[in-house]
Amino acid sequence: MVATVSACGAEKGLISIDQAIEIILQQTQPLSTEKKALQASLHHYLAEDIHAQVNLPTFSQSAVDGYALCFHSENAKDPISQDQISKDQTFEVIGEIRAGSDQQFQLNHGQAVRIFTGGKIPENTTTVARQEIVQVNHSSITITESLRFDADIRHVGEEVSTGQLLAERGQYLNVGAIAALSMAGAFDVGVFKRPKIAVLITGDEVATSSSDLSMDVGSKVFDANGPLLQAWCQSNHFQVDILHIADEEEVVNDTFDRLKTQYDVLITTGGVSVGDYDYVRPCALNNGFAQHFWKVKQKPGKPLFFASFNNEDHRCYLLGLPGNPAAVYICMQVYGKLLLNALQGNSNNLQWFSATLTQPIKADQRERFIRMVLSFDQGRLMVQPLAKQQSHMLSNLMQANCLVRVPSGKVIESGEVVQGHWL
After folding, report:
1. From CA 31, how far away is CA 35, in angstroms rounded?
2. pLDDT tens-place string over residues 279-302
3. How far apart are CA 103 and CA 120, in angstroms?
4. Which candidate, 221, 187, 217, places its Cα nearest to that of 201?
C-alpha cells in the first residue's frame, strides 16, 4: 500500500496529543472539597483516605444454613483426625441461632446448635456442617459426609480489620464503593465538588426548529452539538447549562465576562479557528483568560483551545472545541473527560487497551482518533474501522464503541496491534 499523507496539519506550532494531555493535567487544579453523606456521594471522587471503623465481619458468623458443631479429636496422633470429622458422627442439638440473635451458647464436645446464615458462631465451635450433609434425628443430628474443621465460618476481621485503609483520595464512588464503605462504617465522607459547567454553542447557522430550517433553505443546519454535549454530560453524571450565542464579537465578549466567575468550566463549540467570525479565542484572551495551548496535531479536532481565568476568588477553565460535531464528541471523550476528572482530584491519564486491527489504514500527517467497533474473536480483542470518519459526520457513532489512536505518517496494516479507548 502506498502511503498518502495529507498536508493539513503540517504547519508549525502544533503540539502533540500527549503534550495536550500533559498540559491539561498540569494546569488543572482540583476544586474545593465538601462533606457529604455517603449515600449522597455517588459519582463523586473522594477527597480523603477512608479507614475502616469496624472489623468485617464484626463477629464470627456462619456462612451457611446448618449446624455449629463442637468436636475434639479422640486421636491426637492421627493428623487426619486432627483436622476433620469423619462421617456418621452424632451430635446433641441444644438450641438455635438466627441472624441477628443475641442468644449465647457455649458448646461442649458432641454438642451442636442449629444456625442460620449470618448467625453468630457460639463459643467452642469446631466447624459448621451445612444442612445438606446433616440427618436430623429429633434432638440429635448425624453428619453424612466427612467434614473438615473450620468449614463455613466467616471469622471476625477476615475481610477488613479496624483501621485498615479502605479507599484512597481520588477513588471514584460508584455503587460498589458506596456499598463497601457503608458496610465498613463510613457514613460521611469528604469529596471533591462537582464542577459547574456551561456549554456555549456558537454560530449563526444553527437552526432551533424545523420551521427555522425551512425558512432558510441551504443556509442553516440542525444543532447536533447542543444535544450531544447535553447527553455526554448527563451520561457522565454532570449537570450542565446550554447556551446558544451568535458569532458576534460583542456577544461573545459579554458572555465570557458574565460567565467566567459563575462557572468552573466553559465549553465552547465552533468559533475557535482562524476565520473572520471565530471570536472565541480573542474574546477569551480579552477577558483575562490565559492560553495554555491552541491547535493540536490531531485529526479530527486540530483547532482545540485550552485556557483558564483566575482571580483571587475563582478559577474558570475554558475548553474551546471545534464546530464539527464528530470533533466535538472525540475531544470531549479525551480532553473533556481529563479536565473534568482532574477538577475532581483524579489526575490519571486515560486508560488505553491493545487490540488487533482487522483492515489497513492509510497514513496521515496528523495522529488520528478513528471511530471503530471493538469485538472479541477467539479470545482476542479486534477493532474494525467504520466508514464516514469525516469530522462533520456522526452517523457511525451509533455503532462505534471505541476510539483508536493511529500514529501519524505511518500505514497501519491489518493484523497490527493498536491502542484503543472505550467510549
Report:
1. 13
2. 999 999 999 999 999 999 999 999
3. 9
4. 221
Cis omega before residue 79 (within 30°)? no
Residues in the chain: 423
DSSP letter, residue 336? I
End-to-end alpha-carbon separation of the chain, Å? 30
How far apart (Å, rounded) are the C-alpha atoms in residues 321 and 103?
66
Distances, alpha carbon 344 to alpha carbons 31, 179, 347, 417, in Å: 6, 21, 8, 33
In angstroms, the CA 325 to CA 269 distance is: 9
How is residue 47 written as a grid cell? 477527597
Residue 264: count of CB within 10 angstroms of its CB: 18
pTM of the predicted model, to two decimals? 0.84
What is the signed CA dihedral for 174, 398, 422, 41, rounded to 10 degrees?
Answer: -20
Helices of type H across 289-379: 325-331, 337-343
Q: Nearest 5°: phi and psi at 356?
A: -95, 130
Reading the block at residue 35, the C-alpha cell is 462533606
Beta-carbon count within 10 A of 171 CB: 21
* Residues 123-137: tens digit of each pLDDT: 999 999 999 999 999
Which element (helix H / strand E) includes 229? helix 225-235
Torsion of CA 164, 168, 169, 172, to 10 degrees: -130
What's the one-letter identity of residue 15? I
Residue with cell 480573542: 282
Q: Report the DSSP pairing between strands 240-245 and 140-143.
A: unpaired
- Report the alpha-carbon angle 116-118-120, nearest 5: 90
Q: What average pLDDT does the chain have?
A: 92
Give the whole-angstrom CA distance, residue 362 versus residue 108. Answer: 79
C-alpha grid cell, residue 169: 483520595
> CA gyration radius for the chain?
31
Q: Give the helix/strand (H/E) hosting 280.
A: helix 280-286
CA dihedral over 332, 335, 341, 343, signed as positive or negative: negative
Q: How many angstroms separate the CA atoms of 165 and 112, rounded? A: 38
